[in-house]
């Protein structure tokens, strides 16, 4: 009992531990790597064309619809309620998957999952509102590790149950339902944050104090001004005691804070280019992640072949994590070589996607997916590090939200044009050819920009060194005279 009390009073260990447990359980979705075989198999009996061109686009549209309002509500509601909402909708998601029949139910399922994914922003934002600044890096590391471990464990367990135990996909969903129910219960143990990033009642109350102080300094001219001062004090106490962060002043204060953070986030051209790659590459990554199971099923139908989706997802997560972890050991001047690195590895991503599109070997497609995901994880880690190291936490949270929203907007445009049956409604192979071309365009853009940046900065360094040498020569000459 003493240890538990000590853990709670540590200031950062308890909320980090509880949120890590939640992150592990919420991402331990045993059935997720087998979603497509489950939908097009005898359990739901939906055709591959309907899943590709109708069902999955609904999730993209729902995600886009909910992301921006949820991002703002997350800070306004102080994070914990949004995490609990995510846990609740995860439960309803797997209830629908397990027990709801028919296409209308699966359509509603995609809307439901759009809410789940839009609330993911609360997972990382929460911890920054309850722990000291000095523990941010350590807590972030634990939370990312918990998510990765949960996803890898869930995918591995699902693969073992399918390959070794011959377990039906329905039972994988039932197992996942039990796990996410536990995650929902764990979310109740999270402490409620006492502060937010943008809806800061303290600043609103501070402005009232400044008004009162100004009245005192100017001196009361009549009894009316004394009443004004008293009314300001009463107003301050009223807001402090009842309204809190939901007060009108808090909401009004949030607007300027958001605008200030936005200007700081995108005031540097360097950060704009990193954010541009983040948005472009993430849009492509989400699209490929959504439709890769359909590509695998196209090469080797799950109805007649062994399915190794869980094993591939587990391997790709581990390799991707190792690639991301390797960033901390690389000593590169990212301001000079970063954009060129983005261009080069985007070219590797493009090649991997083209291989997925054209190969008829399922193992080559698996290998290409692992390579693609590893490159993306490597580059997104560098990008996040570069952006976060140059911004305050408020600005980073806003930048994360805006970049994700732009990525989702781009993904929605691609989905509407390429995937949706109301437009082109292309087959899965043609889709992947387009995705490969999309990454090729990103690669060309950043190779050109990166080469220009590297040349300019290298020339600047050479000129600085030359001036230093010339300055040193002049000093020696003066000393001799």
What would your notes on this structure say?
The chain is mainly α and 481 residues long. Helices cover 80% and strands 0% of the residues. It has 18 helices and no strands. Helix 15 (334-358) runs antiparallel to helix 16. The chain is globular, with a radius of gyration of 26 Å. The protein starts with a helix and ends with a helix. The model is unreliable at 201-216, 219-245 and 473-481 (pLDDT under 50).
Main features:
mainly alpha, disordered C terminus, 481 residues
Radius of gyration, in angstroms, nearest whole number = 26 Å
Q: What pattern of helices and strands is seen along the backbone?
A: HHHHHHHHHHHHHHHHHH
| Beta strand count | 0
- pLDDT below 50 for ≥5 consecutive residues: which ranges? 201-216, 219-245, 473-481
Q: Could you say which overall geometry the principal axes of the C-alpha atoms support?
A: globular
How would you classify the helix and strand content by structural class?
A: mainly alpha
Strand count, sense and barrel status of the largest sheet are: none
User: In percent, how helical is the residue content?
Assistant: over 70%
The rounded distance between the terminal residues' Cα atoms is: 80 Å
Portion in beta strands: under 5%
Number of helices: 18
Output mean pLDDT: 80
């Amino acid at each position: 009992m003493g240890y538990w009390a000590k853990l709670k009073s540590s200031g950062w260990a308890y909320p980090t531990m509880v949120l890590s447990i939640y992150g592990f359980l919420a991402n331990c979705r045993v059935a997720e790597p087998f979603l497509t075989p489950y939908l097009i198999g005898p359990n739901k009996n939906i055709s591959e064309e309907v899943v590709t061109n109708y069902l999955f686009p609904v999730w993209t549209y729902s995600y886009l619809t909910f992301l921006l309002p949820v991002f703002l509500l997350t800070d306004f509601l102080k994070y914990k309620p949004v995490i609990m909402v995510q846990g609740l909708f995860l439960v309803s998601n797997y209830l629908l998957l397990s027990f709801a029949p028919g296409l209308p139910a699966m359509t509603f399922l995609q809307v439901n999952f759009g809410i789940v994914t839009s609330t993911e922003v609360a997972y990382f934002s929460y911890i920054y509102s309850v722990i000291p600044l000095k523990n941010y890096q350590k807590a972030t590391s634990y939370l990312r590790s918990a998510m990765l471990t949960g996803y890898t464990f869930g995918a591995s367990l699902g693969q073992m149950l399918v390959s070794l135990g011959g377990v039906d996909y329905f039972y994988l969903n039932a197992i996942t339902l039990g796990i996410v129910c536990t995650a929902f219960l764990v979310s109740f143990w999270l402490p409620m944050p006492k502060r937010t990033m943008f809806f800061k009642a303290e600043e609103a109350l501070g402005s009232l104090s400044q008004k009162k102080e100004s009245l005192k300094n100017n001196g009361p001219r009549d009894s009316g001004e004394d009443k004004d001062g008293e009314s300001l004090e009463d107003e301050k106490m009223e807001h402090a005691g009842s309204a809190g962060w939901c007060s009108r002043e808090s909401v009004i204060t949030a607007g300027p804070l958001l605008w200030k953070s936005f200007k700081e986030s995108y005031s540097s051209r360097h950060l704009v280019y990193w954010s541009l790659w983040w948005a472009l590459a993430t849009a492509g990554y989400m699209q490929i992640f959504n439709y890769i199971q359909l590509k695998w099923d196209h090469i080797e139908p799950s109805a007649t072949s062994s399915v190794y989706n869980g094993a591939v997802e587990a391997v790709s997560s581990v390799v991707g994590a190792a690639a991301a972890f390797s960033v901390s050991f690389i000593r590169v001047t990212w301001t000079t070589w970063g954009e060129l690195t983005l261009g080069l590895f985007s070219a590797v991503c493009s090649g991997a996607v083209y291989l997925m599109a054209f190969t008829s070997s399922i193992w080559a497609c698996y290998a290409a997916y692992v390579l693609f995901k590893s490159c993306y994880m490597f580059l997104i880690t560098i990008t996040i590090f570069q952006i976060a190291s140059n911004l305050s936490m408020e600005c980073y949270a806003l930048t994360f939200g805006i970049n994700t929203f732009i990525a989702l907007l781009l993904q929605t445009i691609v989905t509407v044009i390429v995937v949706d049956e109301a437009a082109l409604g292309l087959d899965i192979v043609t889709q992947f050819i387009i995705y490969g071309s999309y990454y090729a365009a990103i690669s060309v853009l950043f190779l050109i920009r990166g080469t220009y940046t590297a040349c300019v900065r290298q020339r600047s360094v050479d000129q600085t060194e030359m001036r230093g040498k010339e300055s040193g020569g002049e000093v020696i000459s003066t000393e001799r005279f």
